[in-house]
Design goal:
This protein is of the alpha+beta class. It has one domain (about 20-95). The protein is about 30% helix and about 15% strand. It contains three helices and four strands, in the order ββαβαβα. It has a four-stranded antiparallel β-sheet. The longest helix is centred in the C-terminal third of the chain and has 16 residues, at about 80-95. It is globular, with a radius of gyration of 14 Å. The relative contact order is 0.25.
Length: about 100
Amino acid sequence: MTIEDRGAALCGIVGFSVAGNTPHALRLALRERRDRPDGPATARPISASETTPTSTTLDAMRATHAWTRASVHCYNSDAELTEFLTAIAAFAERPTLSAR
């Protein structure tokens, strides 16, 4: 996982990429919980979005590729953050997710 955000002060919107996976494939895999053998049957979908160099003015000045964004807020629990990071780690171990 590569954190795409830059700057001295970062906020709750986290831009990231996972080698070998497109932002679109990652967004779908998080929503469908492909990190779990039973998918969304026992886990809530994880919400993420895709961004491109042209989708935000400030990011467009430095971006050369698209990435995935997750919005972390004060109401997210430590357990939810751990669940998100565990899912991303699972996708990093299996590159090239399909965007089915």
